């Protein structure tokens, strides 16, 4: 047996532990190119954690992906703050590629990461995987099309930009796993009132601020007609940034969510910039 073939079989064994039955032989080369597997087919601790996270996310998103891709053969999935594009490549390898239709568009502000991903997509013959360099907030995809938007750990307010992007593109599904967030914690620091005890201490302000940020994001999506589910994304041992906000458009708007949002910001005395998408 050739050395290369033996390496692939070793790598498949390593991967089978993480995701039994799912990894194709061709995926091994891709995972090596992504530096998830080392050149000799092993999986280090950080790479194992990242791979588990991404595979778990793909599994959680599978029903939404299927409904978007079933209804529309030319559906576009936009992955925002794509970074090294682990999610995009694994999504293509496991779902979009085998399905034979649909495309993925990665957006990131870092040109060197985008160039690297473009090169890898070409080498992997992932012809329906494209990229753009740019700020999420300023990017419009060709024909204004993004049927589903994903943003995995897009830094701080980049998750809010992902929401604005999804609304501009009238995405049917939006999947957000927010990252660190500072804006609301800063605003709470300047806010006083009956609830002030909830954020008097720095650590509470940071944690409560992150919680309020995601509550506001969810209400913003609801008032735009999305049905929102917020769940734990993966075990805390894999990531501290552990919340998945999954929104599916099911109506034009939701005035009740609008009233709840207005009440909440009034009670807390904070108006984060994302409220620019709710008008008046
Ligand atoms: C923490 S990384 C996450 C990367 C990837 N989604 C993942 O989970 O592996 C965040 C990425 O978002 C990009 N980013 C942050 N703010 C952005 C913005 N406003 N517009 C475009 N990209 C942004 C960064 O360059 C970085 O690559």
Describe this entry's structure for a reader:
The chain is an alpha/beta fold. The protein folds into 2 domains: 1-43, no CATH class; 58-277, Vaccinia Virus protein VP39 (Rossmann fold, 3-Layer(aba) Sandwich), CATH 3.40.50. The chain contains 9 helices and 7 strands. It has a 7-stranded mixed beta sheet with strand order 3-2-1-4-5-7-6, sandwiched between helices. Helix 3 (45-71) crosses helix 4 (86-99), helix 7 packs across helix 8 and helix 8 (202-223) runs antiparallel to helix 9 (255-268). The longest helix is centred in the N-terminal third of the chain and has 27 residues, at 45-71. Residues 81-84, 86-87, 107-110, 113, 135-136, 152-155, 158, 161, 179 line the site of S-adenosylmethionine (SAM).
Q: How is the secondary structure organized here?
A:
Elements: H1 3-18, H2 25-33, H3 45-71, E1 76-80, H4 86-99, E2 103-108, H5 111-123, E3 129-133, E4 148-152, H6 158-168, E5 173-177, H7 183-189, H8 202-223, E6 226-232, E7 243-249, H9 255-268
Parallel strand pairs: 1-2, 1-4, 2-3, 4-5
Antiparallel strand pairs: 5-7, 6-7
Helix pairs in contact: 3-4, 7-8, 8-9
Bound molecules: S-adenosylmethionine (SAM).
